[in-house]
TrEMBL record:
The chain crosses the membrane at residues 12-31. The lineage of its organism: Bacteria, Pseudomonadati, Bacteroidota, Chitinophagia, Chitinophagales. Keywords: Membrane, Transmembrane, Transmembrane helix. This is Efflux RND transporter permease subunit.
Length: 43
């Protein structure tokens, strides 16, 4: 199973790159919508 994922990722770098870029954009959007109370105070 893991071998098939690795082979697919190597053969389809563009698809994997677009998927990762989409995840980054989605994460940034989710972070911007996060309430201030949910972000820990690290300072």
């Amino acid at each position: 199973m893991l071998n098939k994922i690795i082979v697919f990722s190597i053969k389809n770098k563009l698809v994997v790159g677009i998927f990762i870029l989409g995840l980054i954009v989605w994460g940034g959007y989710s972070l911007s919508k996060l309430p201030i109370d949910a972000v820990p105070d690290i300072m």
